[in-house]
Amino acid sequence: MRSFVTCALLLGLAGLPAALQGATAAKAEVAPEQAKLDALVVRFKKHQADCLAEYQKAQTDEERSSALTRREGREFLPEFQALADEFAGTDAAGNALLWTLRIGIVERAAAQAVVARLMEEHMESELLSALPSELAGRAAVIGPAEVQKVLGELVEFSPHKSVQGQALFVLGSQGLESKDPAARARSRAALERVVAEFGELENFRGKLGDQAGGMLFKLDKLQLGMPAPDFEATDENGVKWKLSDYKGKVVLLDFWGYW
Amino acid sequence: MLPHEKALVQRLKDQPFALLGINSDGEAEEVKKMLAEQEITWRQAMDGDTSGPLATRWNVQGWPTIYILDAEGKIRFRDLRDEEMEKAVNELLAELAAKKGGAR
Question: How would you write the pLDDT of chain B (104 residues) with one tens digit per residue?
């Protein structure tokens, strides 16, 4: 029975530190605030899964849009906030604050207050490595200038390489298309630093070094008028081909998915 | 996009033109079935998922993403769809024909 419970818990807890997910997890002492957060996250994820199932079964557009709205789970916000207040300063509280950003605070002042608390109370913690991507996702709510400032502070003041690297990556990806040449130059410098120093860090799309490298590659090699860089590929039958095989023809290159 | 692309490939089958797909649907075996079902005949690259090596290298952030190259392999257009895409291809084919004509 016990191992069943452990498995069920671990399945829902992708956000937990890796150390907790090892074989000894069942024996490790879990702090009470962490246990409380874990249980809340399990309930929240179950809610999301239930709404997704409803969405898939829905017959009308109205039912579908209602299921999607409920899937956001905004009613969980007060619970995460209360947990963050009750155990202020602990990693569980910091993670609860991150969850409130993730679920989606819609008022600018409230979102900025959460970010400010994370920066004041958790700067020494590695849990802030999850903050840069949340800031990127919420830039419109928090305000782009504030996001830039916070990311810069994370790079400068966090003692953790993972936090610095994630912050630099988001900083670099944001200014690439800016009209301001100085902003573009800062963005490029940040991406080059990611490639050189933080390439092995990962986000949901894979290694940061590969992604930052792709952004620089596009800037330097994929602009109008440039010769398209050659590549080798394999088709669905295992046959290899190269882009340069098609020299002499007009080529329409289509990155696509049927999904 | 697909119907437009099929029409384009059909119309230009005797022209110096190639449509090349970089596919991010996953396993080659599954993609192969889908290609057969959808009667997609043009050349494909199996790039795995949306974090595949080519999509990552070329920094593809949305699908479809289009690049149109002239016969010399230069990038001439990006991110066009349907009619605009077809117009661009026609323009490059006309340019190529004019060059060949001029060389003779």
Answer: 889 999 999 999 999 999 999 999 999 999 999 999 999 999 999 999 999 999 999 999 999 999 999 999 999 999 999 899 999 999 999 999 999 887 55
Instruction: Count residue pairs from A and B with Cβ separation < 8 A.
Output: 156
Task: Answer yes or no: do B67 and A228 touch at CB < 8 A.
Answer: yes
Same domain, A98 and A127: no
Could you identify the residue written with the tokens 């000894």? Answer: A24
Does the beta-carbon distance from A252 to B58 stay under 8 Å? no
- Residue A212 included in any domain: yes
Q: Containing domain of residue A215, as a range? A: 123-232
pTM for this entry: 0.81
A129 and A94 housed in the same domain: no
* Number of folded domains that form chain A: 2
Which chain A residues are Cβ-neighbours of B65 within 8 angstroms?
Answer: 254-255
Q: Which of B42, B31, B38, B33 is nearest to B3 (CA)?
A: B38
Which tens digits make up the pLDDT trace of A245-257?
Answer: 999 999 999 999 9
Q: Contact A252/B8, CB-based, under 8 Å? A: yes
Q: What residue type is B71 in one-letter code?
A: A
Q: What is the pLDDT of residues A95-127, one digit of tens each?
A: 999 999 999 888 999 999 999 999 999 999 999
Q: Do B75 and A234 touch (CB under 8 A)?
A: no
- Statement to judge: residues A145 and A222 lie in one domain: yes
Residue carrying the six token digits 């009209």: A179
Crossing angle of helices A91-103 and A77-86, in 10° steps, is 160
Q: Are residues A6 and A77 in the same domain?
A: yes
Residues of chain A positioned with their CB less than 8 A from the CB of B21: 254, 256
Could you write out the DSSP letters of every residue in B32-87? HHHHHHTT--SEEEE--STT-HHHHHTT--SSSEEEEE-TT-BEEEES--HHHHHH
Residue among B44, B86, B87 with most chain A CBs within 10 A, to mutate: B44
> Do A85 and A140 lie in a common domain?
no
Q: Smallest CA–CA separation between A220 and chain B, in Å? A: 11
Residue A130 and residue A96 share a domain: no
Same domain, residue pair A4 and A80: yes
Considering Cα of A148, then A194, then A257, then A225, what sign does the dihedral take? positive
Interface contact B94, partner A, CB < 8 A: no
A91 and A130 share a domain? no
- The verdict on ipTM greater than 0.90 is yes
